[in-house]
Amino acid sequence: MPPKRAESLFLRALKSEVNNLAEIFSKKTTKDSLEELLSKYLNSDIYLKWQNNTVDTLLGGLLRKTETSIKESLKSGVENKQVLATKLKKIKEDDMLFTVLLAQRLRKEVKQNIDNVFIKMKEDALGWLEHQSKLKRLIFKLRGKDRTEALSKYLKKKNIKWADTIARTNTSRLNTHIIETRSKLLGIIAYIWDAENDRRTRSSHRFMNDVIVFWDDVPTPGIYEIRYKNNRAVHAGQDFNCRCTPKPIIDWMSIFNGKGTVRVWVNGRVETMSTKQLKLLVERKLGVKLWK
Q1: Which pick of 46, 68, 169, 214 has the fewest CB atoms within 10 Å?
Q2: What are the DSSP calls for 113-129, one per residue?
Q3: Is 216 in the same domain as 248?
């Protein structure tokens, strides 16, 4: 599961802003006034400062968490101390440039997703007002304080639930993107798909649990969905509302020396192969001969 603290802080910030904007939106009664309000709001210094702080907090938390996790995995998966020291040094050297470049790429996406929460709120407010205007019986129409309170309550209830989904999806996607980028910097070519495996886990992701996936071969787990099959190409944690996590493979020896078979995403599907076959595949991917 992606870092819960980062997700919780992100969700708390979104919920607070949803509540604030619901109060403001509820005082408007026309499409033009709502459009004007939203435009001014999304371009205001207060909102842009809040948005930047929210994104910085989320990215900062995820960067620290993934760095710690990969360092711990390296310490347990690399026996040669000299090799370990070299890899840890590389993390430190690359971290400054990595943080700046990655933040630049991800910041725009997260900001747009945050904007979309409030754009959706405006559309919900317009829909509610239009419904009120079409009511034929005057007794059902709300006015003044009653209308303001009803609209505010409606917007909060509907969009706080949506904010929860946005926070979970964005946190998970960012977490996977950071892990992937850091893995590639360290020459880590694959991961193990780790699903939550509870009643909320979709059937395709439950099927992908413990499957070895190579970063350069994005899987389409939706082909294994029981009810709604799809061809979305996603790594663990990148699908909408997904709680899965990619676990980078650092110690191939423990897998190669294992008994039985392993499941691997290859040739557009999950295949079961022997550890010897997997070793040959890894050697082909790396372009070097591994230990016997």
Answers
A1: 46
A2: HHHHHHHHHHHHHHHHH
A3: yes
Nearest to 113 by CA among 174, 66, 62, 60: 174
pLDDT per residue over 253-264, tens digit each?
A: 888 887 789 999
Q: Render 271-288 in DSSP notation, one character per residue.
A: EEEEHHHHHHHHHHHHTS
Identify whether residues 137 and 216 lie together within a single domain: no
> Do residues 79 and 134 both lie within one domain?
yes
Give the pLDDT band of residue 235 (cuts 50, 70, 90): very high
257, 182: one domain: no
Rounded distance, CA 86 to CA 39, Å?
50
Contact, 24 vs 87, CB < 8 A? no
Q: What six digits make up the tokens of 187?
A: 């020459």
The dihedrals phi and psi of 266, each to the nearest 5 degrees, come to -155, 145
H-type helices in the chain, by residue range?
4-25, 31-42, 45-77, 81-134, 144-185, 203-208, 252-256, 275-286
Containing structural domain, residue 250: 189-292
| CA atoms of 241 and 201, how far apart (whole Å) | 10
**261 SS3 class:** strand
Does position 136 have pLDDT exceeding 50, yes or no?
no
- Measured CA to CA, the distance from residue 121 to residue 18 in angstroms comes to 8
Single-letter residue type at 7: E
Residue written as token pair 């993934």:
66
Using CA atoms, how far residue 95 sits from 134, 182, 258, in Å, is 57, 9, 34
Residue 213 β-bridge partners = 191
- CB under 8 Å to 243, separation ≥6 — which residues? 1, 2, 168, 172, 195, 196, 200, 201, 237
Reported confidence tier of residue 71, pLDDT bands at 50, 70, 90:
low
